[in-house]
Amino acid sequence: MTQTLTRKTLLSDKELAVVRLLADGLRTKQVARRLGISMSAVSMRLSRAAEILGTTTAIHTVVECARLGLLEPDTHRAARLRREIADRHASTCSLLSNPSCDCRG
Fold this sequence. Notes:
Elements: H1 7-10, H2 13-23, H3 28-35, H4 39-53, H5 58-67, H6 76-96
Helix pairs in contact: 2-3, 2-4, 2-5, 3-4, 4-5, 5-6
């Protein structure tokens, strides 16, 4: 996305909560427990976030949110995990020659 958008116009607080917890390294089941929602609700919120951002995977969604400044590093550990996720995502896109992702460039 090239235009600058505020957090509110981009993703809901519920969608951001899911993405933030995934960025912190939690798995879907752990996110559901932490937020007190079902795993299908986690998947629905993640799918909606991916649709809004034009991403295709959970990792790509996390990376795009970080790129847009929607994920503030809460701790050193969280920032390190986000970097690892971004590196893994870039490696995967490079291996697959993913034309729909601009993470490599």
